[in-house]
Amino acid sequence: MTERLLTFPTLNQTQITALTSLGVDVVPASDWETATDIDIIFGWGQHGPAVLQNPQNHVRWIQTVSAGVDYLPLDWINAHNIQVTNASGAYSAAIAESTIGYLLYFLRDFNDAVKNQAGHFWQVPARSDLATLANQKIVIYGTGSIGQHIAELLNGFGNYPFGVNRSGHGVTGFQGTVSLEDDAALVKDADVIINAMPATPATVHYFNTDYFEKLNGVRIFVNVGRGKSVDEQALMHALLYQNVLNAALDVFETEPLPRESKLWDYPNVLITPHQTGFDVDNIRPIFGYLSDNLKSWDADGQLTVNRVDVSRGY
Amino acid sequence: MTERLLTFPTLNQTQITALTSLGVDVVPASDWETATDIDIIFGWGQHGPAVLQNPQNHVRWIQTVSAGVDYLPLDWINAHNIQVTNASGAYSAAIAESTIGYLLYFLRDFNDAVKNQAGHFWQVPARSDLATLANQKIVIYGTGSIGQHIAELLNGFGNYPFGVNRSGHGVTGFQGTVSLEDDAALVKDADVIINAMPATPATVHYFNTDYFEKLNGVRIFVNVGRGKSVDEQALMHALLYQNVLNAALDVFETEPLPRESKLWDYPNVLITPHQTGFDVDNIRPIFGYLSDNLKSWDADGQLTVNRVDVSRGY
Could you count the other beta carbons within 10 Å of the beta carbon of residue B252? Predict the structure, then answer.
């Protein structure tokens, strides 16, 4: 059976040949306006909604190249029984490495060093200004693929983090987990808080004024989840009033982060432009998910890898 | 038997009491000029040579608070049969964490991010600009306590580094080791080179023009060993001609690094002010070495922890 797949990422010839051998007719995204009979969308882009809603197409499956799928028209997709598989896991290793990098950037006092370097200042910090990862109390929100990868790397530093998830179920690599409702006691004396949750209605502005007021000088707050989970005004307030001492942020309420955002100028904030999952080899695992799903899809109409519960949003 | 110990670090009352209970009379460094009959020196400072050479003293042992001992008057110490024990191992965990931080700073493209942040630039890098530690070919010079700690942390990232040491003997955590004489083939296609060697006559300017010319675009060069091991002029040349693409340096030929050094302004160099081993808990393991050595010294005149071969210099 021949399926027509519209691909937003540019595929190389080896990848196109591989898809063709699986019985797939590959349509580049540049042909979106004239293409018809599209069954599958790979990736997403500006013209995704038009492709999806074109009555000449009959899209039944979207394989994203992202882990989060909150940018898709999920209500429409749900109403039309379109299946979605995501790229969960493809970025986890890179995101976890970036996260360890963020923590060491502040714990090993690189943040002061880069500022002093700009002024040619040899300013030796106090020994007590530096700390090791091994000795931090770390709480990770989200114990899925990303959270688990972060925990695994932390374990290599002799650190066993705590996890927070919906139900509080235990997860390998964590010394303990609690549910979102029961996190107050856990975070009160945390040294490090990491958000790695997906964006869902339940997590929008989870990190708000009420949340930050529970904290007593958390050394580092990291957001590698979704920008919408953090109320940026509340975070800036927490940074000023030292409920939070430093923050590393890769995602924002509005992206690109507007030039006029005050966050840029906070001396104790590290801003990276939603790059934390980037890796020279990113496409390799994602193409693997697509191929594996294509095989089962052709065999029995099932998608076996990374199925999204569209009604839940992840 | 009462020993008189002159201490350069300021000890707290608990530590002084602990030493007193071991039969030690503690003399603070501020009393260096009037003190006599000093047997043991703990740490080192400006007036160390005067204390050592005062004929009213009879120093037989120096317990340093540093891993390297190249700043001591080793010839004089050797000629007078004074024993030296160092703080090897006390800083290794912190140095290893800093080293991982340096690597992630460049691999995860924080170096561009901090510069872009200063200008409020949301500049998304290419996916191919970022890489993961897991996929780097890493060569560590020095396979002692520091090198082994770095290797151990790298193992947690799924990376098994290569080691270079004097004899080429194998070491746990490394996928292979070669001797200093046989490193050319190993470093030719290395992604990362880390210096963690002590300063000895054999390692002075080991990383010189001849060395850097062997490299084909090493992604990151790290120096957490000693400043004298690197010819800084040669390194700057290598950075300009892209034998080395980025460098993280914690130690320098002259410290503090002079304000007029051109190194400060290299956009692909991260400079930290000899802080890589700092930790809020630094004194704890070193005080442990001192106590353990005091016990054996009193029992049978032996020093069991971290004895330095004074003639070799480490």
Answer: 21
